[in-house]
Amino acid sequence: MLWQQVLVGGLLSGGTYAVLALGFALVFGVARILNLTHTAYYMVAAYLFFDLGRSAGLPAPVAIVLALALVAATGMVVYRLLVEPLREQLTAVMIMTVVLAIALQETLTLHYGNNYRSLPPLLPGDTTVLGIQVTLQQLLTLATVWAALGAIWLVLFRTKLGIAIRATAEDRETANLMGMNVGRVAMITVGLSLIMAALAGVTVAPLYVLHPRMWLHPLIIVLAAVILGGIGSLRGSVYAAFILGFTETLVVFVVPQGAFLRESVSMLVMLTVLLIRPEGLFGRFFEGER
Amino acid sequence: MYAAARHLTTKLLHDFRGEILALPTRTILFAATVLLLVLPLLTRDVYLLRIATLTCIFALYAASWDLLAGFAGQMSFGHAMFFGVGAYAAALLNLTAGLPPGLSIPGGALAAVVAGLVLGVPGLRLRGPYFTLASLAFPVILTGLIFYFPDFTGGELGLLGVARLGSSRVVEYYLVLALMLALALGLWKVATSHTGVILHAIREDEIAVRASGINTTRYKLLAFCLSGLCAGVAGGLYAHFMRVVGPSTLEPLLSLQLIVWAIFGGMTTIYGPIIGVFILYPLMEYLRALPEYRMLLFAAIVVVALRFMPEGVSAWVQDRLERQCPRCKERNAVTRRHCRVCGAAMLPQPKRREVSR
Predict the structure, then answer these.
(1) Are residues A264 and B143, on separate chains, in Cβ contact within 8 Å?
(2) Which has the closest alpha carbon to B130: A217, A281, A246?
(3) Which of A39, A78, A231, A274 is best to mutate for the B interface (most B CBs within 10 A)?
(4) Which residues have C-beta within 8 Å of that of residue B286, sequence separation ≥ 6?
(5) Which band of pLDDT confidence, cut at 50, 70 and 90, is reported for residue A241?
(6) Does the distance separating the beta carbons of A279 and B130 come in below 8 Å?
(7) pLDDT over 80 at B274, yes or no
(8) In angstroms, what CA-CA distances link A46 with A26, A207, A215, B37, B176?
(9) Whole-model pTM?
(10) Contact state of A290 with B296 under an 8 Å Cβ cutoff
């Protein structure tokens, strides 16, 4: 019984973290921006979905599309006006993105208050899989997350845009010399990562409670996943997100009162791996970044 | 005896004129320090003194980060660990062993030095962004442990009833201010000394430093320990001043907010982060009048400031008030036509400060 629960829980949280971490890793690779606002957009999307779906009474698919579009548009405008001009200064980008995340948190607190909210599931009811009860919402979330991962994989490895994105991530200057509009590629990547974050937000929203500070925990896990997988490796960040997701679920289910320790154990796993392999699971050292 | 004292006074006055009054930014810093020293004479408002004391505590905390991040180049995202370890250790020593603040704060600082060595282990092995992000893990791990062992650590509520730092707010203020000024001066001395140059070089190119026959491991660990020591003192002072230590002292947000203060003020200067705290922390308190919009306004101010002064407030002000001599590279007030040291003619247009990172 327990192992099936860990499996389902791990696939769910690991999948969510993977979608978030992949978006984060893409922006970091292409635009060289440590976007600490990333998970705040995830939160905003969840709240927007909550608002559009319940208060405005839109049907769920419309609300989802609208939430994704709004988050992507806002995020791209913010990136263009506030983050991109500072791109050369790593430290300035960091505080800019942290402060933007705090600003989003506060805007949500202003609007919704500092309390917990939950959404009704999109698909009510449950079913039995592998001998345990699973809600249909969990299955839907699982399917969406995996579909999103598959779709982004296709974009990255089967399209011309994907080649441009990967080339820019690998070597910005050379990609520029090859005639790619690096700025535009970065912009598209930011949009893509925003859509992924927002998608994670709306699919996960009905499973968890909403709170204006819900961005911090996923941010920590995403940062851990990106270095555990190795900076610059998209594959690595996805694997690492699953490792951390499964670790977390395992701790919660196996250790008594494990919910308190879930972050600690995930971080410990990350540190142990990094001490053995300082460049992460799939990372490599860049020339000149010694 | 009398002649010696007179000689000393003349020398001090001479140095004061030549070293402090000659440069507008130093004059401003000097005036601000004097203002801080006489603050209790100007007001006895308990609330105001409380804010001033907390500002001093966080200023020390921010300055300690700058030695590690700005000089040694170890951009730590988990600096709250030192603060939290210092605060918790001081509180536990006070509550369980009954030590007075005079002993428990050094004890907390010692614990933070040990924490610095622990953080040094990945610090020696991981580079650049890997270390930055990995350091975030330490306070998170500690927070988990605190929640897991609530009997020992007080859990979510924290440790209550820590002894008072001093008998009155004024005494507490002077204690904290004196410690902050002394330790910050110490940090500044280290940062501008030979050791500071080596730390700076490690930040720029560690392999080149090692190739010059310098034991970089030793210097990096020294930076971790010194930074931990100062942040630990700040944590201990916080514990005894607030008289309660909770998991909020280890929050990731406290680490991130520190970075906002430090970069806003200007990194790699030691005094920059202190200036940042002295501007932003009281501002935050002042904005308490508008509780809902407080953080939002704070964010807006930082965003605008960063957009136009990405090097920090202190560098921006310095660029406006002072100019570098083209010949001897000494700084001069912007009003001077000739360098105060070598007498070379100053360039008419101000030279931009070079971007270091």
Answers:
(1) yes
(2) A281
(3) A274
(4) none
(5) very high
(6) yes
(7) yes
(8) 22, 11, 11, 50, 44
(9) 0.88
(10) no
